[in-house]
Amino acid sequence: MTIDELLYLFNNKKELTLKDNFIGKIIKELAYINCNINYEFIDEINREFSHQQYYKNTEPKISACILTLNESRTIDRCINSIKEDVDEIIVVDSGSTDNTLKIINERFTNAIVIKEQWNDDFSLLRNKAVEYTTNDWIFFIDADEYIDDQSKGKIKKIVNFLQPLDCQPYYISPYIKDHNGDQYTNTKRIFNKKFKLYYRGRVHEELFHDNYEFITDIGINVIMHHDGYKKEVMKNKDKILRNLQLIELMLKEEPLNIKWKFYFAKNLLNQSSESSKIKAEKILTTIIDSSRVEDPYFLKSFILLCQVYISKSDLSKLKESIHYIKSNKVPVPQFDLAYLEMVFTLMAFQSKLSYMSTAIEPMIAEINNSYISSNNNHIKNVISIIGFFTGDFDKYFKYLPDTDNLYEFNSRILLDKLNDSLRKNHK
Length: 427
Fold this sequence. Notes:
The protein is an alpha/beta fold.
């Protein structure tokens, strides 16, 4: 099967999934195909892709690779979730002192445990794990991840369908769903050893090939859950400090690689000190001034810098950034651009309201000849509303009118609606 044939199948996904056959059942599990091949689908092509044509008599053999270091909280859950999809489990442990190895040895006697010293390099451990495998197909899963119950058993079937694919190197990407609901694509977790892919980078490691800059990515509808970024886990395992140290090492080894500058800035922003945030902003600005727009880490840096402007309420720079994206057709995700525009509009609205409130508040005590309210209760009401929308609730309650001084557009209605909503959502 060529990549063109696979793309043809994927392009006709809706029609094929209506058929109750092998191809129909498998093609629906493909989520996306990201390749750099220029192709055109010709309507006249009407091939028959049968079960016999692509279903191999011998199922693919898959080796799962897991890196561990004090993973007693999750290792049982992880291995139990993959048993239907793999033929071999390789665990590379870098010095666990908890019950991780005891759990593996007692509950998963077929798992092969390899002990390797931690040398500040995740890629080194991943590449070592691949060396210990005896099967062609590799599936990497982290110890704090597990396959969703509805996705169990899918990986082997999908790999069986894709293994005849005759093209340049490719990897297969399940979805990863974080504990907070975030979903990640382009996870690059499944690949064949024949492609000679290898990991590079002490942290935030990625798959590379010596002769191919671009590697085809095939996304699949297999969901893996991950809870390793929960605050208590990050704190207990000191992941933030560990990652920052590894990124600093990468910056020394590859000082011109903007990937490490980006991650260094991102980690600085996770720190509470103002000096760290200032330093991060400078690094991100340098990346944008010296990098190509097409570089994915340029785009990530640009969006992260915009988030810095939002946190600082820097409307001027945020406005400039949005204008730059639009005028230069910077290929940021459309949802991100929409978010930046909405936040800018809201922040500008809040700024104007706050200015109006500050300007008019000193006039409340003055005598006026208003036809609406001689004691300025109508003005107090509007300032109360402004306090509600700008989050200044001290001001909101300070000028909240009593029930005898209600107006057509009054702030007490907002309080009533809020209370109603709170009651409905906390039953």
